[in-house]
Amino acid sequence: xxxxxxxxxxxxxxxxxxxxxxxxxxxxxxxxxxxxxxxxxxxxxxxxxxxxxxxxxxxxxxxxxxxxxxxxxxxxxxxxxxxxxxxxxxxxxxxxxxxxxxxxxxxxxxxxxxxxxxxxxxxxxxxxxxxxxxxxxxxxxxxxxxxxxxxxxxxxxxxxxxxxxxxxxxxxxxxxxxxxxxxxxxxxxxxxxxxxxxxxxxxxxxxxxxxxxxxxxxxxxxxxxxxxxxxxxxxxxxxxxxxxxxxxxxxxxxxxxxxxxxxxxxxxxxxxxxxxxxxxxxxxxxxxxxxxxxxxxxxxxxxxxxxxxxxxxxxxxxxxxxxxxxxxxxxxxxxxxxxxxxxxxxxxxxxxxxxxxxxxxxxxxxxxxxxxxxxxxxxxxxxxxxxxxxxxxxxxxxxxxxxxxxxxxxxxxxxxx
Length: 417
Hints:
Largest sheet: 11 strands, mixed
Radius of gyration: 20 Å
Helix content: 25-40%
Structural class: alpha/beta
Strand order of the largest sheet: 5-4-6-7-1-8-15-14-9-10-12
Oligomer: single chain
């Protein structure tokens, strides 16, 4: 049987509602800072939801020239920025590595929704005169971010964009792990990017009752596992992780944040938008990640929950956890969407960074805004309410679940030579 390679994380990059780089993001996350505010991208007065977690102080011309910016939708811009930070963090010199063995697996759930919406509006306003931008198609394509990244850096390895709704970037990270584990790549740029704060996107998610409508108290609207939770808060941004074989990382003398040891990808096979009430897909994903990582459930020190703050989804995940961790005396978890909002296809990547840094720093971020915990949450599950906690994190899981019943769980461990 072919021997497998150890897989590590050597670089991180992020552009989020609570920080435009990894350091600021992490500091704000552990300090319980919320990124929510009133929507500024458009006039939300007629919408049921009038708030979101937007990126602050962003000007594309601080990162791109006008020509570059015109060619890319916001989601693609965000991803390019996060990846550049991750590359700099990993200190990779592409002139000194084999670019034919470096891949890009970068996700987005809805791609260039902003561009699509703007183009259709202009088409209608111009009385159906089909004068579309020459960049319309390439800005809309969800895989344009992976293509743009490979072109910019000359990376000729595996290149694609998994599209499994809100599980997309966590699933992509698992794929990156697999490519390296089985010796098909040395380095993979993995992550996700999303720019969903548009009229059609907010209105569409309102129609299916996914978003919180707590406009009078939007600062506390994202409250996972609270009895009063009423839906998620939309977020935007991007996150990137440099996934690398241990052999390659050691050869470069790279710093190592954490090791990836397993991944689970499953399906609920139940409903297009609702998770199974028994959490069967989530349970199987966690079970498979633990099996592949050779991790006993009692060894898990932390789980970053998918936990979007929806009435059904939160309890489905908790049910899956209780089925997976049957003998656990105490389990530390946190729901960080309470601070970042839900970044859809980029959620798995930004929460993978969270899980990675929790393992690296032995610090568990808090769950904020939750004051009255749903009675269906068992007493042995510690949500880390209100403030971060210090705890040795040797093994950790990151959960992501998406419309269509897609379930992904990745397992990380503290790096040891």
